[in-house]
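Q: Hand in one record:
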Amino acid sequence: MERQNQELKRQNLELQKQLAKELEQIGESRKSSETQLRSNYASMNANLGTAQEQVLVLTGRIEEISFNLEKAVADEKQQQANIDAISVLAAKIDQRLKTIEQYLNLAAMDGTAHRGPDAQGVSKDKQGAVSTVDQMYADAKLAYDEGRLEKARQGFQQLLETYPKSSHADNAQFWIGESYYREKWYEKAILEYQAVIEKYPKGNKVTAAMLKQGMAFLQIGDQSNARLILKELQKKYPKSNEAKIATKKLQEF
């Protein structure tokens, strides 16, 4: 009986030792697990922080790329606008050059248009000569008034060639310009008006020629030259009726 009790005590003691050992192992395992969990948690937090930083960096890059893209689009639009503006300006300059070239060609074609003898319209029969130039002018002016513009030009031109220094010369030159203006051949009219201004600066048709020259430039869309001529008319002949008309025209620009 006693032996059995001792055996039971021994078994109980071994069981306690084994249980204590297992509890110790469980405790160590738990500590290890907790340590691992803490380590994993810390690592996860670190990874999360890194991921957040990377997200911020990527967000910044995306915003930068978006800004650069918008800027590039805006720059491209501005560049296209600049190109369009340059194209329009180039077209205007080209048109201006073509107009000037046309003026020069017309002037070259008419280089001998106004040549004639240096005569006063006076022959051996002075009274007869005066009557002749007056009649030539009257006939040409009548043709102009009746709308026979080519016939009128021929008459005025003949008068200029035959009697270039007559009192009718500046008027004849002016009406030649007017005939082209009525036919809407404005480039040719501009040249004829210029002949009035240059050849007869003291004549009574200078202001009218300047006004109509400015209006002819307006008709062909050349506002720059039109404005220049009309302002010159205002400056040189401020009290003339033509200057008053020029002022109104300039206000319409």
Remarks:
- The mean pLDDT is 78.
